Amino acid sequence: MSSTEQTAEYFKDKSEEEIINWMTRNLTTDQIKSCLDGESTGKIEEVKPGKLTGNDLRKFCAGKRYVIHKIEGDNVLFWYYLSKSNKWNYSKESLSSFPQTIDQLDADECGQDTIIDSEDVKEAYNNNELTGENLFVQNNEDLDMNKTFNDVKNEYLKENINYSWMDTLILAINIQKNIYVPKEYNKLFKFCPILIESVNKESVNYYYLQKDDSEFKFVEANLPISKLRADFNEIVEDLNLKIIKSGEPGSSNSNTEEGFKLLIKKAANEIDSRDLSRIKNIYSRFPLSEDSSFFMDGLFDENSFGKLSELKYSEIERLIKKRFPDSFLKKYRPKKITNKNGTKTLVYVAR
User: Fold this and answer.
1) Rounded to 5 degrees, what are φ and ψ at 115?
2) Number of domain units in the chain
3) 49: number of Cβ within 10 Å
4) I need a surface site. Which of 116, 221, 230, 308 has the fewest CB within 10 A?
């Protein structure tokens, strides 16, 4: 189906009012004029837009010092980037102060003077450098500001807003988290079954799960961040697993849940030990969820994945000597850290 046909299909069941509302939110005044009958003399400003949503404001304020949380009544709750302190300050302003259409440039908020360079904001955005806790608590009972900011960033990511602000690693992990996985796979993995090994500014190196006859293997791949979502979706589709109950007849492509777990675990532990160390380090720092279930916590041979920080340094070094060449400890030393979520984990730092 061509883009023109897709557009026609989208508007097929929409009322005139719904079409006008969509146009005022998504098109500039000049674009709207080009859509109207050449004989029309009505002013665009006379068309009243429908009720604005938080997502509308996120689009209107994209690339500027604003991360819109929500619209509440006649007010907008949002984080505003303070360049001097390099923090995102939780704020509250009247909805009428914000643009009402995508090309309104004279609004008090989200003006052209608030455009910021992505490099200036990237560190504070990815590390959740936040302030304004008191105002947040007053307007968000029983919510945690750090978690809420993460949730809002995920919503921005899904809408492809401020995409370039995200750190490549965090962006890749968020893409992995948000790939659709059939419900029948949930006890095997809730996320796309890939293992991110390393990233650079533009691309991601990872291992993805592939079924080969009755066996599994993890295949190494490297792609630009822009192509990850399509590839991760394809990885899930290609698995086509047939999960059966114990004792139930099945084809060569089927197995029980426990049978698949053993095969996947075997494949994961055949990954190069140095790459495996980097993979474990990444997912210890950035867990896919509070409860990663089998695919992360139970995937590797060591029961202590993500819990190495509970061991003594002498015990950690003994484990390292078993898994890596002698030269590893000459170049790196283990260090226990606590991440933003309060989780204790282990990283390897250069000596």
Assistant:
1) -65, 135
2) 4
3) 14
4) 230
